[in-house]
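Human:
Class, as today's exercise, you are to examine the entry below, and be ready to discuss the fold:
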Amino acid sequence: MRLNKFIASCGVCSRREADKLIEDKRITIGGVIATCGAQVEDGDTVCLDGKEIKPKEDKIVLAYYKPVGVVCTENDVHAERTVIEDLGYKERVTYAGRLDKDSEGLLIMSNDGDLINAMMRAANKHEKEYEVTVDKDVTTEFITGMASGVFLRELGVKTRRCKVSKTGKRSFTIILTQGLNRQIRRMCGELGYEVVKLKRVRVMSVKLSDYNLKPGGYAELSEEAKKLLYGEAGVK
């Protein structure tokens, strides 16, 4: 098995982040520092920072309400509080898709690297829904502009068309099928608006409203909910 896939199957992180661990020389195979593209054979001992990691047999999937101020990172000495610290789960899990420090709402946490990888693959166009409050009145022109796609100068890309609905004088919901860095905040900024509050309320079939969670709380998905999510993600 390719090393980054093996690391992901251990619930450590996504394959992309696994590549970074390998590049940083934090992974060894049989006591030897691993290189990108390495293969893991039966019987190999794989370690992260000197501690052995193994694939997870029990698939854990959690709905977690990330509070404002908590950072989506595995290890950052500059972060006041990370997702992993705030969650405080008994087993190691990681997140499928980030929320920036100033945003709140639903994160899917799992020890299944295949699920996380499938959910984060941009080509799969999985839906994520947000409730947004801005600093000015929401106009028809603004809604149309957001829905049609916005060119983000800092990133040099135009966002995909999306669904946007006005919900109040200064609020709206938006459903994205991509996850560019600080995408909603950048989109609003390009149209002359500033985000005051941003909350993710749905990831694919998982809705925050289905769980009675307060910020910092989490709940394990039922077998039915897990089955539906795995089906949507295309993971067996």
The first strand starts at residue 27 and ends at 29. The chain has three domains: 3-52, 61-121+205-233, 127-203.
